[in-house]
Amino acid sequence: MSMNFYISGKRDITVNKTGVVETQHCNYQPWQTPTKVTNEILASMLPVEAYKAWVMSKARDEQEPVYAEDDVFCDGEALSYKTVNPGKEECTQVDEWIAAVVALGYELRFYSL
Fold first, then answer.
1. DSSP readout, 39-72?
2. pTM of this prediction?
């Protein structure tokens, strides 16, 4: 079993009604990484950049068919094809998630499980 790379956020909040301080957590589910890669990412000074570099080393452009709007089951002829890259999409998603949670006051943590 591999040790995978994970990203989480943590922040303390105060409940207005009671004044109680609680800790909130949020998690990002990155792509599954081999243990060796996880260790390299965690040893990096910039773990997110190391993770994204690994993602892009694995991802390739793919041609995805585009079907007519009313062809909900995609069983007709493809009208065209568009180029997609799951790695680019993952890098965008992780950057957007990090920006959102940091803006909300979360502190990031990078770890393996």
1. HHHHHSSSHHHHHHHHHHHH---EEEEE--TT-T
2. 0.85
